[in-house]
Amino acid sequence: MQKIKLGIIGYGNIGKGTHAKNIWLGKCPEIELAAIADIDPARLELCRADWAEKAGAGSGHPCPVCFNTAEEMMDSGLVNAILVAVPHYDHPRFVKESMERGLHVMCEKPAGVYTLQVREMMEVADRHPELVFGMMFNQRTNPVFRKMREILQSGELGAIKRTSWIITNWYRPQYYYDSGAWRATWSGEGGGVLLNQCPHNLDLWQWICGMPKRIHAHMHFGKWHDIEVEDDVTAYVEYENGATGTFITTTGDAPGTNRFEVVCDGGTLLCENAKTLRLTKLDELESAYSKRNREHAFGQPKATVIDVEIEGENAQHVGVLNAFAAAILRGEPLIADGREGINGLMISNAMHLSAWENRTVELPFDEQCFYAHLMERKKTSRRKESTVSVISDTEGSYNA
């Protein structure tokens, strides 16, 4: 069987505990983990020990070659594809360096911290159409979200009128933030709940409902924790067709809620906990009923409640990586093209800009203005970027 030869930059929680593990367990049969790069010598030793143990257990997987820098790995000739699993600010940098060396690349979320750097990354990708560029939006493999998107795109429910996502089950105690010097800092992470926990939700929100045109956000910085970035966000948005939406998130609610509702002219979709989907379908469009009804002051269209049957596998990270390999080997479609990573980040950046300036922000927004605000906060951040060497929820310790 033909396989891609993958190199992972960052042997941290996601690089080691998810991606490398899935490959070793045989869940990605078209991928050979050929190399690992991490600037932390202790993590490279851990990698060698992990894979020596696996080889001893008869897995048949040779130990990947370990490199002290990403550049050494990319220049080694041992890999033809890269998985970027490092702190947020460095995502665009390593995507660009990979593609400039003729390597396919899969990037962990988020695409970056600010849209200007992501646009530079996209420009490099556009100059190399022969290379596969994917984004690790593994929640797009969830058949519940795929079904929501299918129903809305079919047009059977008519136009969207309102969207609402209460995603507050990202609870984190203070110890979580105290466990790493770069966590929840402007210099290390570039943001809080919107940059670390919610990139998947923001991506799914726009993937399913479309991009908003206007955003007004209120957020609190260090409201529930001793941190400098946002841990409580409430945002109101408006869409091109006049629909409205709200997005509410925090890391301070226990146990929190995950409730995603989309109200349309012809019915409502309600997703609970990313597991169940209920459709309340109107017998006729609300707009049509309201115009024709001249008998019942308190009447409303008849509705049928349907628990939508969900089919398909929720393959998560494995599904994204297997699609990445198939795209390289056979030209099959990705779960998410890397260029799509900017969409959720645009929403996140616009939310920050709105909160910082206490105003409604139109999309596209002033990206230079956002960047200036972010850099001012970086200057006074508690931890300087050059000293960061601790993992976050998803990234490895690699940091230049």
Task: Describe what is shown at a glance.
This protein has helices at residues 13-24, 41-56, 70-74, 91-100, 115-126, 143-154, 174-178, 193-196, 199-209, 286-292, 316-330, 341-357, 367-379, and strands spanning 4-9, 31-37, 65-67, 81-84, 104-107, 133-135, 160-167, 214-221, 230-238, 244-250, 258-264, 267-272, 276-282, 303-307, 361-362.
Structure overview:
The chain has 400 residues and is an alpha/beta fold. The chain has two domains: 4-139 and 315-337, Rossmann fold; 140-311 and 344-370, Dihydrodipicolinate Reductase, domain 2 (2-Layer Sandwich), CATH 3.30.360. The chain is 35% helix and 22% strand. The protein has 13 helices and 15 strands. The strands form two sheets. A nine-stranded mixed β-sheet has the order 14-13-12-11-7-10-9-8-15. A six-stranded parallel β-sheet has the order 3-2-1-4-5-6, sandwiched between helices. Helix 4 links the parallel strand 4 (81-84) and strand 5 (104-107). The relative contact order is 0.18. Residues 384-400 have low confidence and may be disordered.
What's the number of extended β-strand segments?
Answer: 15
**CATH architecture grouping of the largest domain:** 2-Layer Sandwich
Characterize the quaternary organization of these chains.
Answer: single chain
Order of helices and strands: EHEHEHEHEHEHEHHHEEEEEEHEHHEH
Coarse structural class? alpha/beta
Work out the helix count: 13
How far apart are the termini? 36 Å
